[in-house]
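INFO  loader      accepted 1 record
INFO  loader      residues=362
INFO  predictor   begin
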Amino acid sequence: MKLLSVATRNLRLALLACCLGPLFALPAQAERVKDLAALQGVRNNQLIGYGLVVGLDGTGDQTTQTPFTTQAIGNMLSQMGVNLTADQTSKLQLKNVAAVMVTANLAPFAKPGQTIDVTVSSMGNAKSLRGGTLLLTPLKGADGQIYGMAQGSVMVGGVGAGAGGASVTVNHLSAGRIPGGATVERAVATALGQGGFVYYELAESDFGTAMSMVEAINKAMGAGTAQAIDGRRIALRAPESADARVAFLGRVENLEVRAATAQAKVVVNPRTGSVVMNQRVALLPCAVAHGNLSVVVDGAGGGSPDIQVNQDAGSLVSVKAGTSLADVVKALNALGANPMDLLAILQAMKAAGALRAELEVI
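INFO  predictor   done
INFO  writer      dumping tokens
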């Protein structure tokens, strides 16, 4: 019995090693092909429609100020066999109706009969769409053709009590969602490649990542399968039959690729004060004065940021060359610099050539 238990344990360990071995063998920071690139021509298509939401609890459009709502109601009623004169239509006072725009994304390879989610947004002066029902609304593409029909109850995350009823949360009430609220009526033809080739397009142009992807695909699928056309596009020699091509792409998109290191970049949002940077950002010696703030990057190497505050001459931040920008931002925040001060200092560093990174303001 003891020998049997030892053999069973060894067998379990061997199976565990076989299962976990490939995980430990993956290269560091490896990403899948599907996360780095997309197939050329395989894309979403935006749909839009104009409709009416009814059943509101007095929170709809004020029809005296939104004539397009009353006109839409008149057109809808005429299709139902109820004919109103222009004078009668102009006098409608229906506070439980709102004119809305309906938008949706038609996924690639979507077929008639499938359902998609839609977003319903008020375009008048309705106070809320809570509790409303969207009437049958055709959804059109950029070519003017109808690709879907939407209808259903609008879900709006609105006013609600917090935990224990101690607080009240008010969300945006003039827009909502209808999960599975539209039915696809027309399919969009999607060409999966051209001739004997399919093309992958990288999300960001990078020659190093393109070559790494080509090497990974050729290693797994055979030499000559993939070739780089430029820094963004990669051509793959794919099987002719549809079934074999789908199986081929299923294997390719799950291959692991070591992506090239991204370009040094600093992203600043002056509205929120957010500063995001990657690991490649570096600083060179410089001196920046902004109001009562001064930033000095000296030429000595090593060391950590040395912050000095001078009440008479203003605040001084002194750091050594080679330190990270994160230390500079942290030091400036400690001195009370606001987002606009931080943005001005970063822009000055970039203009002087001391900030070795791309500065992007969003």
